[in-house]
Amino acid sequence: MGHADDRLGPPARLMRAAGATGGARQWLARLPMTAQEYLDRWELTPERVQTPGGRSSMAVLVHQADGTPAVLKLALPDGRAAAELTALEHWNGLGAVRVLRAEPEAGALLLERLHGDVSLRSLPEQKALLEASATLQRLWVAPPPSALPSVADRTAAQADGLRASAWAAETAGPLVAEALELRDALAPGPGEPAVLLHGDYRQGKVLAGDRTPWLAISPRPLVGERAYDLAWLVRDRADTLLASPGAAAILRRRIAKLADSLEVERERLRGWALFRAVEAGVRERSEPLLEFAALL
Asked: Which domain of life is it from (predicted)?
């Protein structure tokens, strides 16, 4: 095996996002060699690293030995790739990208190639919401037998992080308190059967495909109620929303439309949208996200 191709270096976004801890820095330093190892073992020919890329993984556009295009995804070996594989294999291409090969313990997935530069964000907003809703309905199936975290488990850890954040208390104390109160009320679930959730569903995570028009990518799967999975669709295009006159009214209409079309309770959707926006706003120290949450 030769040396790693110089073109296999991690993108700047990934370096910034994942380079904060010692373990991640070691993984980043070795990432070009790791990519080269999988290219050799799986007989892949690289085109280029996809940029700007994600914040916890690197995607290399490749061709398989028979010429079929694919994507080699190399993620931090923190267990997320195994959970992602569990969900993608359970969906088996229905509404989501297909897995071609995998070594989840090493964070390596070979995925079918989609049109990475064409997401639902390329569509007008109302059309994007319709397509996003239709795709998401295909993903809401009975959970796989493999253990995945629940909404209650994941949000309990996030709530602990909010309570421990001095920055949160100082910057947005009343909003954080409301978010925590909502989470405690929502987490037990509404009594409906729990389903497999994408966990990080938004317009940018749905790409154009060849075998079907739109397919979801990069789940952070968990099990729970459907309203949780809609929260980031409420937040999509928040920058445009925040700059619009009557933003709060527009947001209320968006929640009503999503809730009614997918048969979830409006207040549960509003509550999860607020909690998730506050949690992300505190974690990322993002005042625009907290401003958005305040509109809810």
From this structure: Bacteria
Name the active-site residue from 5, 78, 153, 200: 200
Instruction: Read off the pTM.
Output: 0.94
Would you place residue 54 in the very low, low, confident or very high pLDDT band (cuts 50, 70, 90)? confident
Q: What is the four-CA torsion angle of 217, 222, 226, 232, rounded to 10 degrees? A: -50
Phi-psi group of 101: left, alpha or beta (phi > 0 → left; psi -120 to 50 → alpha; rest → beta):
beta
Q: Are residues 101 and 153 in the same domain?
A: no
- 92-106, pLDDT tens digit by residue? 999 999 999 999 999
**pLDDT in the model for residue 186:** 96
Known catalytic residue at 117: no
Q: Would you call 154 helix, strand, or coil by DSSP?
A: helix
Number of folded domains that form the chain: 2
Evaluate whether residue 164 is within a structural domain. yes
On the question of pLDDT at 22 being above 70, the answer is no
Distance (Å, whole) CA 45 – CA 63: 5
Asked if 173 and 103 sit in the same domain, the reply is no
Q: Kind of pairing, strands 214-216 and 99-103?
A: unpaired
